[in-house]
Amino acid sequence: MGRIVLPMEIRRLLHLVDDKSFVEFYTEADTVILKKYAPACIFCDSADNMIEYSGMKICKRCLEKMNGIAAEMKEQFEEQ
Ligand SMILES: [Zn+2]
Fold first, then answer.
1. 79 and 44 in one domain?
2. What is the b/e burial string over 19-55, where b = at least 16 CB atoms within 10 angstroms of the residue's CB?
3. Are residue 28 and residue 47 in the same domain, yes or no?
4. Neighbouring-strand partners of residue 24
5. CA 67 – ligand 1 centroid, Å
6. Cα of 56 to ligand 1 centre, how many Å?
7. From first to last of its 80 residues, what are the pLDDT tens digits of the chain?
8. What is the DSSP letter of 52?
């Protein structure tokens, strides 16, 4: 029936542990690639103004929040 089973280790690694997780297949020459299907921001599920980093999608708003946190952390390190 064309089914495959992903080992638990790979499902954990890709955070494919709940019923809302999907994967997509595509091919390159004679290779089949299976990729986590992530159409929305990994943090807030928004699909607006996305950027991709290291295979993960992040929206601009969450990225700006992370930049703010990074700036605060940098200040704390410089105070020490
Ligand atoms: Zn977001």
1. yes
2. eeeeeeeeeeeeeeeeebebeebeeeeeeeebeeeee
3. no
4. 35
5. 13
6. 11
7. 989 888 999 988 888 877 778 888 999 999 999 988 878 898 998 888 999 888 788 999 999 999 999 999 999 988 87
8. E
Dist. CA 53–CA 42, nearest whole Å: 11
**CA 3 / ligand 1 centre spacing (Å):** 33
Please give the Cα distance from 16 to 76 (Å, whole number): 35
pLDDT of residue 18: 73
Tokens 């499902």 label which residue? Answer: 11
CATH number for position 29: 2.10.260
Q: Are 66 and 60 in contact (CB under 8 A)?
A: no
**Which domain covers residue 73, as residue numbers?**
39-80
pLDDT at position 40? 87
